[in-house]
Amino acid sequence: MRHNHSERDLSGDVDVNPLFARPGELRSRPRTRLPDAPMLPETAYQLVHDEAMLDGNARLNLATFVGTWMDSQARKLYLEAFDKNMIDKDEYPSTAAIEERCWRILADLWHAPDQDRAIGCSTIGSSEACMLGGLAFKRRWQEARRAAGKPADRPNLVMSSAVQVVWEKFCNYWDVEPRYVPITEEHKTLDGADLKSHVDENTIGVVSILGVTYTGMYEPVLEVSRALDEIQRDTGLDIPIHVDGASGAMVAPFLQPTLEWDFRVPRVASINTSGHKYGLVNPGLGWVLWRDRDLLPESLVFKVSYLGGEMPTFGLNFSRPAAQVLVQYFQFLRLGRLGYHEVQKASHDVARYLADRISAMDCFDLWNDASDIPVFAWRKAAGHNPNWTLYDVSDRLRMKGWLVPAYPMPDNLSDTVVQRVVIRNGMSMDLAANLMRDLQDSVDYLDRLKEPLPDVERSVFHH
Known about the structure:
Aspartate Aminotransferase, domain 2, four-stranded antiparallel sheet, aromatic-L-amino-acid decarboxylase activity, Glutamate decarboxylase, pyridoxal phosphate
């Protein structure tokens, strides 16, 4: 039985192995209070290093979207710049200039109609970027309502029931009513169906996800936009779209370049992405852009000193490392469009290989086939051996070092349990073949069970 962190014994001391303790050092240290005396850095390093070894292997973690591989030059650049504070624009003007170059590159990549009118910024991750996109929606809606002499106290935001938890947090923290459009077997994503029954004059915007966390599927932004066009014709409501492209906004431009999801769709007001996912940077970096600076209310923007003048800045976080921004620019320079295409296609090829192999196993049914981002999910085939579940498969794979989560789908599909893999740069075809071998071995073992495994406490996967 796995223990939660809260169940660990925190009362005892941390023991120091005599083989790496230095002469005269204490052989134990208090676990939850500051020690009285200092410790040699080599010994402290060894203690922390050894405890961190208990974590899973990040390269074998197929649950996370976050990048786990960077080349040596990127790591060197990171180490040279992690002590720079991103908010200090005047002290680090070159870094500030590089940040602007990065979001301008993204504005071009996402087909902003006028790059000089677009505006954006880096964030600590795509979660902060989503918060800023939602705040811009709310503030712009409030200002328009007040200017028209209408009440502005009951905003709502429309989104799929499969949104990442950051959108639930946004609505909770900023007093916005969340309106969830349930996904179903017939409508596996927010595709515009039944949208009219969820929007009204208090709707600040609609969130469309380019790469749903549960499955990796793209929500069809163009279809959602057309549904909102029809609603506007019928009701006069002009409702904008924010594209949560945490993963897909750094995949679609290179693997599905003709797909219309970005600023080519006029109703798309803002887009966010994660630099630390398929942007190929280690944690934590996000980006958020607006197609036009008029879509970012001036009341959200602060002025900071920069090169003897002022520079607009907006964000929830203040001090944070500048290193990730520099590494993002490094990746843009190093890879270019062709390089990003090759890296993303390599991950996509691995994902399609795994999807094909898993779909051929009679115990599983694919939920989706990795045709969007290099992510896909599957469920247990109906009627297959009732003595095991996907949670048991996850446990067996964990014994081999693989972290492959099993979890229920949201709301109307909460009785459906799926497993999902996220393929990132660094997951090779050889590793994928090893995963398939271990998955087949796990299923073979479970199929030999004569009765169900004991019902034990399981580790819980959170999106």
